[in-house]
Inverse folding.
């Protein structure tokens, strides 16, 4: 992540639909599968807003990131965060964590299996990880390049990496189906009329923001009952 993208996230973290909806998704999955109390590590802390929410839920929260700016942001909010490469052995006791959260992190890492192996070693029996990654390699675009992505995912790819790391797949589904048609249209136009693209999130009106949050809430309700067949992200719940 570039420092300017971190500043963009700081500006939007409290109210922008994408960040709020993804945070609410993570919370619902954590409470369902790996509820507090217990130790939780977020890998890739970004603006650290998610860490505050996880702490409020009752977890003993800490985080790792490779960006000094992210670590300083977390510490300024009174949170424990360390500068650390997730692909290197984690500075935690083995089998000590109740939960790990990796929200749009693995696509930034050249060797994601190494990260998941570290997760497996750190998780206590019965603990687990909530993972989100961008879906569909055929949608890889300048947006992904600007964000520093190595790849986009299929459910089969995430399952394979999880199993190689020794983790059990509790569930796999898609997320964010409601914006997939618009994203496909944008990607198609970019292929016909290529141009550079920044990593900034597209701004929307307050009304549109509320509508998208409503769509995300409806989709979470659906996910509790049946898998979502398509969407811009893959969501995995993996256990030790």
């Amino acid at each position: 992540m570039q420092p300017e993208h971190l500043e963009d996230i700081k500006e939007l973290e409290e109210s922008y639909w994408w960040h709020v909806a993804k945070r609410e998704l993570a919370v619902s999955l954590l409470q369902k599968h790996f509820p507090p109390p217990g130790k939780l590590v977020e890998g890739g802390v970004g603006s650290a807003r998610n860490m505050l929410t996880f702490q409020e839920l009752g977890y003993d929260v800490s985080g790792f990131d490779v960006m000094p700016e992210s670590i300083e942001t977390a510490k300024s909010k009174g949170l424990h965060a360390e500068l650390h490469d997730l692909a290197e052995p984690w500075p935690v006791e083995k089998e000590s964590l109740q939960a790990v959260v990796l929200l749009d992190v693995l696509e930034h890492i050249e060797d994601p299996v190494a990260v998941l192996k570290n997760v497996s070693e750190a998780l206590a029996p019965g603990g687990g990880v909530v993972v989100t990654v961008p879906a569909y390699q055929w949608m890889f675009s300048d947006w992904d390049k600007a964000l520093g992505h190595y790849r986009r995912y299929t459910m089969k790819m995430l399952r394979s990496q999880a199993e190689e790391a020794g983790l059990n797949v509790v569930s796999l589904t898609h997320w964010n189906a409601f914006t997939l048609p618009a994203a496909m249209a944008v990607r198609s136009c970019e292929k016909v009329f290529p141009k550079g693209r920044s990593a900034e999130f597209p701004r929307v009106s307050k009304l549109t923001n509320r509508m998208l949050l409503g769509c995300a809430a409806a989709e979470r309700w659906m996910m509790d009952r049946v898998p979502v067949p398509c969407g811009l992200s893959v969501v995995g719940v993996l256990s030790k």
Notes: The domain at 3-239 is CATH 3.40.50.150 (Rossmann fold).
